[in-house]
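S., here's the first fold you wanted:
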Amino acid sequence: MPLLTVLIVIIVVGVLLWLVNTYLPMDRKIKSILNAVVVIVLVIWLLKVFGLFDSLGTLHT
């Protein structure tokens, strides 16, 4: 996946999260949970895009 596509996805997710945080009236706790979920999903997606998530699954302790 090209780096430009990854950058565009990050920017779009950031703008959508900002719009939700700014314009939707929600409790602060719900907003923080939503922000955490979006960031965790984005990080997992980035790890998969760069191929690091697959290699983490093969580690044995």
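And the second, which I think is the more interesting of the pair:
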Amino acid sequence: MPLYLSRFSYTPETWARLIAQPEDRAAAAQAYIESVGGKLHGFWYAFGTHDGYNLWEAPDNVSMAAVALAISGGGALSTFETTVLLSIDETIDALRQAGRVQYRAPGTQ
């Protein structure tokens, strides 16, 4: 199954609710991804541009998109970004295929 890395940030209101009533949101994230046949591999909070990160496994892009849309539509996050991760083997295959693409840069003959 494909892997996905999500980066998220909470709204100030969500942080206020979590301060008033601390809660392990990893359990919620696990339930969301399992509802589409996936698996949560990790849930971390961080300092910096994003408040947290998730590593997910989902059956396909549509399943992951469904989870991302449901979470984004919930209103608790100010940002939610997901990146599809490629394995080494997938990257090697892509590199081999790229070698067969006849790309021409703009303005060149």
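Why I say that: Helices lie at 12-20, 25-34, 61-72, 88-98. The chain has a mean pLDDT of 96.

Talk tomorrow,
H.
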